[in-house]
Design a protein that fits this description.
Elements (H helix, E strand, L loop, with lengths): L4 E9 L4 E9 L2 H6 L6 E7 L14 H8 L4 E8 L2 H4 L7 H15 L1 E6 L8 H12 L14 H9 L11 H9 L6 E4 L4 H10 L2 E4 L13 H10 L6 H12 L5 H16 L7 H15 L4 E5 L3 E12 L3 H9 L6 E12 L4 E13 L11 E9 L4 E7 L1 H7 L5 E18 L2 E7 L6 E7 L1 H14 L29 H17 L3
Parallel strand pairs: 4-5, 4-6, 6-7, 8-13
Antiparallel strand pairs: 1-2, 2-3, 3-5, 8-9, 9-16, 10-11, 10-14, 11-12, 12-13, 14-15, 15-16
Length: 512
């Protein structure tokens, strides 16, 4: 055993605020494999008032003295799984803030801090980088963009695991505490992980959760880490944390993997009767989802007289969206297909912006369509700074041209798109499915009242599956006025038109 342990007294450790006994346990190859360790050295840092007494002894046996020197009735304990990226500033997870917060508590109250080398749930740092690149940037190990994945989906791709596998084990911790003669102490675990607490209890440790433990900063970079823990039921969080998560979601400060995990949580709440989440938290998540499902309500003023209040749902879709909508509403639901050009102008005074849509109708379903084949329709929308009030009016092509010579406006960009449109074909809802250059697949815009949009989306999901929609939750980045790429134009517009016309002809025929 003497070769397994080494000891070192740190005097006046600034981080822990005093004397700290450092203990290192060196695991052998079998233990590394058995306990999911990613390196052999486990560091135990002990700070208690009694530890200082050992400084005045010249000769003593560390192993026999240690249990006599820890006399606290209850000992704070933090088991920190290694996260090197967090230690070096990565904000994707909250590991580093947890580490520092735990050390601060032990600095004030005394306790034991264990640095456990189980990087990436025991899969290692090499794996961790590949997993995070998938989560954050959506690129696989070959550098190919395949879309942002949450933690579980990333592991499925990299390791082939159908269900997320956390291969960490805490048996080694019990063994170390037993060897040190302190396994029978009462411990207050600084953690919200139910899995960790239950595992330690099963091993025989007398451990309770640090009930007043305050969660760490939830931000746009690490919110998906909290959500995946909630989804898998491994952690429970207090209302303060849940409310912070909700604040970020409602303000749309999230990314693709956050959305997919949130949607999975909502699915479980709605469909899994055995989902172990308290009712208050369930209600909160359903409320968060409801508030972002259909986007922000906007006020449209049409031709200076008619006022419409409606929401705009925007998301990416794949090509099966056409069949899904046709199956729900019939073959003649799409009344026309148009080649559209959007021109963006900004007021030099900075108080409003203008978007003009020139739409040339390429084909229609016939009588139900209010437009003629070949007709050009030009519409101007003027937005306030918040883009929540829109003045909408039909204009002429000559007025569009005049904007290029208007000294009060700067021309910003032009975007081309081919749009398959459903207007006035489904009660109280309009649908626009757009093919744009340089944008993967298509973008769907749905306009209508919130309840109507929600019903439409629910019908789509239940009739087929969520794969039709790349993101179920409305994403304002996909709204026309928020495109960030300048001058999106087709490299070969005739080929693009032909491809979309072929789809539209199938929709008119009603072919399966």
């Amino acid at each position: 055993m003497k070769n397994k342990y080494s000891f070192y007294f740190q005097k006046n450790n600034e981080l822990f605020g005093g004397t700290v006994l450092s203990v290192c346990y060196k695991a052998d190859d079998n233990e590394i494999l058995k306990y999911g360790l990613t390196s052999p050295n486990i560091l135990i840092l002990i700070k208690t008032p009694e530890i200082n007494d050992l400084l005045y002894k010249k000769n003593f046996n560390y192993m026999s003295e240690l249990k006599n020197q820890i006399k606290c009735k209850k000992i704070l304990l933090r088991i920190q799984s290694e996260c090197l990226l967090g230690m070096y500033g990565d904000l994707h997870c909250d590991c580093e803030s947890q580490r520092l917060d735990s050390i601060a508590k032990i600095k004030d109250e005394g306790g034991i801090f264990i640095h456990l080398p189980q990087e990436a749930q025991g899969w290692g740092l090499h794996y961790k980088l590949q997993e995070l690149e998938l989560q954050v940037s959506g690129r696989d190990e070959k550098g190919q963009y395949i879309g942002e994945k949450n933690r579980d989906d990333a592991q499925k791709l990299l390791l082939g695991n159908q269900n997320f596998d956390d291969c960490r084990s805490y048996e080694i911790i019990y063994k170390i505490l037993f060897d040190l003669g302190i396994s029978t102490k009462k411990y207050i675990l600084i953690s919200e992980s139910e899995r960790k607490i239950n595992s330690l209890k099963k091993l025989g440790l007398d451990v309770i959760k640090y009930s007043s433990y305050k969660e760490f900063d939830v931000n746009v970079d690490n919110i998906s880490e909290y959500l995946i823990k909630i989804l898998n039921g491994t952690h429970t969080f207090n209302d303060e944390v849940i409310n912070k998560i909700g604040e970020l979601i409602i303000n749309r400060k999230y990314n693709g993997r956050t959305l997919s995990t949130l949607i999975n949580i909502v699915d479980k709440i709605k469909n899994d009767k055995n989902y172990n989440l308290n009712k208050n938290t369930k209600d909160k998540f359903l409320s968060f989802y409801d508030q972002i499902l259909c986007g922000v309500e906007k006020r449209y003023i049409v031709d200076d007289s008619i006022i419409k209040l409606q929401n705009n749902f925007s998301c990416k879709v794949n090509s099966s969206i056409f069949k899904a909508i046709k199956n729900l509403y019939g073959k003649n639901v799409f009344d026309r297909i148009s080649l559209e050009k959007l021109y963006y102008f900004e007021s030099k005074k900075g108080n409003k912006s203008v978007r003009i849509r020139s739409s040339k109708v390429m084909d229609t379903i016939g009588k139900p369509c209010i437009f003629m084949k070949g007709q050009i329709h030009v519409e101007q929308r003027t937005f306030n700074d918040e883009k929540t009030q829109i003045l909408q009016e039909e204009i002429s092509l000559s007025k569009l041209r005049s904007f290029f010579e208007n000294n009060d406006y700067d021309y910003v960009k032009r975007v081309e798109m081919i749009t398959i449109i459903s207007e006035r074909q489904i009660p109280n809802i309009n649908i626009y499915i757009k093919k744009l250059p340089n944008i993967e697949n298509r973008i769907m815009d749905v306009y209508g009242k919130k309840d109507v949009i929600r019903k439409f989306i629910d019908n789509l999901i239940s009739s087929l599956n969520r794969n039709v929609l790349n993101e179920v939750v409305s994403n304002s980045d996909y709204e026309d006025e928020n495109f960030t790429d300048y001058n999106l134009r087709f490299a070969d517009i005739e080929v693009a038109i032909q491809e979309e016309l072929e789809i539209y002809n199938l929709l008119k025929k009603g072919d399966e």
